[in-house]
Structure formats: C-alpha cells, structure tokens
C-alpha cells in the first residue's frame, strides 16, 4: 500500500512526497501503522514505530524512506537525508526514495542534488508502485526548474504533469509560482486563487499568494495571507522567512528578528533564514552579526551569503575579502549588475584599475545606459588621473540624467 504526503513550500517551494509501499502483509501492516501516526502529525511516534520495525526488517528500504519523511517534518534534515540515503543503498531502483530525497534537497535549496534525484526518479519511472509517483516527480521538477530561473523549461515539464492530472491544486500552485517568477502577478494570483478554490485549507497557496502581494507592495494583505497559512500549517520554514521580510518592510525589525530566531531554532540548517537575518543586522550596521549570519547561510548552501559578505566586507574596508566573496557570487550569477558594480568599486579601492573598469564594461554591455556604472567608471578614471576619460564619461551620464548630482559635483572638481 502506498501513501502520499504533499508539501508545498513558499519561496515558495512546491514539494510532493510519496510514502513508500511495502511488500509482504506484515510489512504492509507495519507501514499502515506508521502512516497513521504520520498522518496525525505524531512524527516522534512514527519515527519510533519505524525504528522498531527496522529491528525485524533491517534490509527493507521503504521503512528508511518513510522514517526519513517523518524526520523531515520535524525539521531534522540531516536525519532525513541519512535515512533516505540508506533507503537508496538498500533499494537503488526504488524511484520513491529518489523523489523523496530530491524533495528534501529541493526544500532546503540544494538544487543540483535535487535535480539529479528527480531525473533519476523519472529514469526509474517504470518502477513506481504509486500510479501518481511520476506525476509528483514532474510537479517537483517543474518547480525546481522555475526556482533555478528556467521558467520555459518548467512550463514544459508541468504540461506533462497536467496531462496526468488537471484538477490538482498543487499543479495550479506550481503554475502560479512560474507566472510569479516571470512577473505576471495577475496571472499568478489567478492560479493561486484557483488552488485555494480547489482546497480551501491549502496553506501553501495562501503563502504563495502572500508572496505575490509582498512583491506588489501590498504588505497588509501579504501579512494576512502568511498568517493564514501559518495558522493552517506552522511547519513551513519559507513562511517564517516571508513573514520576516514583510515585517522588515513595515519597519518591525525586532519582530522580524523574533520570527527568524524561531524559524532557525526549528530548522537550524535553513539558509534563507540566516540571509534575511543578516540583512537586518546589515541595515542596523551590526556588521559583525551580519557577517556571521551570511557565513551560516553559506555553510548551509546559500549563494546569496557570498554577496552579503562581499558587500559587508567592502563597507568595513576589507577589500580583499570583499573581492573574494563577490567573485564567488558572480561565478554563479555572472550578470548580476549590483554585484558587478560592487566588485568594480572594490577593485578601485585596491588600485586594480583595469579590473575595476572591466566590471563596469560588463555592466554597460548588459545595460548601456546604466548611469551608476558610468559614474563609478568615472571615479576609477579620476583615481587613475585619466581626467579626460573621466570627463567624457561624466558628460555621458548627464546626457542621460541631467540631474545626476554626483556627476555634476565630480565634473566641477575636475574643472577646478
């Protein structure tokens, strides 16, 4: 007998997990008993039950897979992965285990490994004992592709899911996420509303809808949706992060810190919570605390932590450290304009002028009229004593933005 557990997280990550089938009647009965505990939210009891079952059936991978899901619900990701790894060792052709491990990686932002596992589950699709297992895999893979900035590919995968099930609220939610990512907020809201119509107590759809209202700067509505989601399901780490971000926008920083602290206590290795807390400390000029939180974010898999540390190091004058962190970030996001400008400024501070100019050239190749990149380039020329080049660039800035005060002041200083 196969049981399914659906989870959709808000940054919102959609996840569908599959309780793994058992073979013999005794094993199936044990699985049923564990599932009942799991379904009632008695995760500790489910873990104990599967642990006892493994005493008699130590080679049965399904029990490890199912216990891993119970650990994941408790926020014990390391234990969840340990069990799912063991399930795959014991039964390497069981697609449910790959789907579930990929789901855990997806929910914790380890996207490369999530991709490997989900594609492996598709490779083993003929072995799914649950007729919906492949559907759930497509659903999660579509969400993963969207999270990794591949919305077109995500839509192709979700079309395959739609062919198998066109009335699932999770699919509407996934499509809402994609349209949110490409900036079509009205269509995103339509799909999230559709998901809620299909399932009125669907916490993740409320959270996702709240994330759209957050982007639309409708913070009161966003907070209402997030609070509704948390009242339905308090075990969603992304929801804590989103609520904190809303509170930051409304100026409630202490409450935002409290929410993040609560989330980190429950999910100690959820990177985004550290990044958001680091951003608050940065805004409050608590740079040591900011660096520590960005560092923890990096430790738990966040690329954003490198950017946070880079900008912080630059601000406190540790330019070599800033360069190292910003370059690492750009290896993953080579067209991020704000990071390219920050790196150009750091190179200027270390008198590596040609490298500084190279960063601004990259920005201008992406955005030819980017006045901030032009202005920073002019400052580099001034430091190089290439004043005619600086004057030329500053005049270009003013031709685009005649009211650019910093450029006017720089030109005045050159003329003096």
From TrEMBL:
SUPFAM superfamilies assigned: TPR-like
Start-end of each TPR repeat: 61-94, 95-128, 169-202, 203-236, 337-370, 371-404
One Pfam family it belongs to: TPR_19
InterPro entries xrefs: TPR-like_helical_dom_sf, TPR_rpt, Ycf3
UniProt keyword terms in alphabetical order: Repeat, Signal, TPR repeat
Keyword Cell inner membrane annotated: no
Signal peptide location: 1-21
Record protein name field: Uncharacterized protein
């Amino acid at each position: 007998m196969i049981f399914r557990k659906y989870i959709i997280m808000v940054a919102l990550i959609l996840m569908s997990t599959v309780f793994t089938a058992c073979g013999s009647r005794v094993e199936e009965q044990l699985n049923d008993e564990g599932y009942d505990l799991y379904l009632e939210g008695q995760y500790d009891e489910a873990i104990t039950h599967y642990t006892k079952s493994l005493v008699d059936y130590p080679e049965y991978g399904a029990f490890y897979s199912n216990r891993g899901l119970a650990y994941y619900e408790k926020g014990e990701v390391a234990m969840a992965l340990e069990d799912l790894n063991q399930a795959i060792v014991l039964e390497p052709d069981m697609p449910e285990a790959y789907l579930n491990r990929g789901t855990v990686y997806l929910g914790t932002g380890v996207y490369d490994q999530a991709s490997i596992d989900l594609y492996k589950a598709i490779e083993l699709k003929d072995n799914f004992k649950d007729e919906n297992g492949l559907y759930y895999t497509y659903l999660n893979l579509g969400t993963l592709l969207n999270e990794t900035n591949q919305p077109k590919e995500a839509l192709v995968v979700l079309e395959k899911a739609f062919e198998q099930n066109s009335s699932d609220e999770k699919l509407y939610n996934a499509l809402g996420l994609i349209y949110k990512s490409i900036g079509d907020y009205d269509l995103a809201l339509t799909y999230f509303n559709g998901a809620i119509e299909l399932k009125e107590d669907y916490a993740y759809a409320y959270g996702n809808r709240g994330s759209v209202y957050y982007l639309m700067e409708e913070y009161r509505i966003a907070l209402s949706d997030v609070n509704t989601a948390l009242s339905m399901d308090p075990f969603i780490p992304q929801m804590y992060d989103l609520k904190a971000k809303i509170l930051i926008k409304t100026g409630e920083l202490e409450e935002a810190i409290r929410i993040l602290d609560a989330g980190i206590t429950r999910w100690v290795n959820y990177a985004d919570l550290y990044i958001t807390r680091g951003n608050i400390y940065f805004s409050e000029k608590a740079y040591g605390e900011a660096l520590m939180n960005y560092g923890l974010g990096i430790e738990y898999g966040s690329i954003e932590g490198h950017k946070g540390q880079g900008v912080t190091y630059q601000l406190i004058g540790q330019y070599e450290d800033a360069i190292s962190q910003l370059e690492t970030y750009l290896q993953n996001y080579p067209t991020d304009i704000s990071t390219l400008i920050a790196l150009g400024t750091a190179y200027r501070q270390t008198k590596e002028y040609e490298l500084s100019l190279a960063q601004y050239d990259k920005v201008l190749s992406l955005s030819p009229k980017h006045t901030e990149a032009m202005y920073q380039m002019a400052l580099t020329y001034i430091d190089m004593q290439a004043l005619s080049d600086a004057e030329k660039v500053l005049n270009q800035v003013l031709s685009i933005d005649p009211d650019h005060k910093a450029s006017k002041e720089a030109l005045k200083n050159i003329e003096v």
